[in-house]
């Protein structure tokens, strides 16, 4: 004979199923890695009404004007670096990469990204053994050596103000006449012909004058 199921057990099973379903429904979507969203903003690019070569030359001048060292320049791609030392044992290096491409409708688009590397000075201390009577051998530091920079962090700069100011400097080095069409030809004024001389007027006749015989 089959034993009847307890109503409390059935209610517990239904409650557990409802709880699991609610957890699955209310579960939030996993955030993108490190805040990467692939948004439609133009933080890293700007368009200019000039050829790509002119846009890249303006980019190069903007970087040189801010103290960057140009390390690579292939015409449509360039890379520049600038070093900083915020503290005595901390060094940072900013690498800026720019690529200039032609736009389908004319002009150029400049893509820029900056990567910041952080280095820490790693030093080691040398020691030497000195013999002392009645004590023995004693190790004493005699100086430092092996000072090497060790990279401890790398990140892509995402500050929008940084890129906005950079693109403003690029625009300042673009000639204002670049990208414009040829100058219109000078206006041609049609020469009008000289007016014809007026027809001679008929002499006036005095009605009271006697007729000639």
UniProtKB/TrEMBL annotation:
Question: Does Signal appear among the keywords?
Answer: yes
Q: Disordered: where is this region?
A: 178-213
Keyword tags: Signal
For this UniProt entry, which residues form the secretion signal?
A: 1-21
Protein known as: DUF2242 domain-containing protein
Pfam families the record matches: DUF2242
Q: In the UniProt record, does the keyword Signal occur?
A: yes
Q: Which organism is it from?
A: Marilutibacter aestuarii
């Amino acid at each position: 004979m089959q034993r009847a199921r307890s109503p409390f057990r059935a209610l517990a099973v239904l409650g557990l199923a409802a709880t699991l379903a609610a957890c699955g429904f209310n579960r939030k979507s996993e955030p993108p890695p490190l805040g990467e969203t692939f948004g439609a903003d133009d933080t890293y690019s700007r368009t200019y009404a000039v050829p790509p070569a002119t846009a890249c030359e303006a980019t190069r001048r903007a970087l040189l004007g801010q103290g960057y060292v140009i390390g690579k320049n292939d015409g449509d791609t360039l890379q520049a670096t600038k070093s900083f030392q915020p503290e005595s044992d901390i060094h940072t290096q900013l690498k800026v990469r720019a690529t200039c491409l032609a736009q389908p409708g004319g002009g150029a688009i400049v893509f820029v990204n900056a990567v910041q590397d952080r280095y820490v000075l790693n030093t080691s201390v040398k020691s030497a053994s000195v013999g002392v009577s009645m004590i023995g051998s004693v190790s004493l530091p005699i100086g430092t050596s092996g000072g090497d920079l060790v990279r401890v962090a790398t990140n892509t700069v995402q500050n929008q103000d940084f890129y906005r100011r950079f693109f403003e400097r690029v625009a300042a080095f673009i000639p204002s006449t670049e990208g414009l069409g040829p100058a219109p030809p000078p206006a041609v004024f049609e020469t009008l012909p000289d007016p014809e001389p007026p027809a001679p007027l008929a002499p006036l006749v005095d009605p009271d004058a006697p007729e000639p015989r």
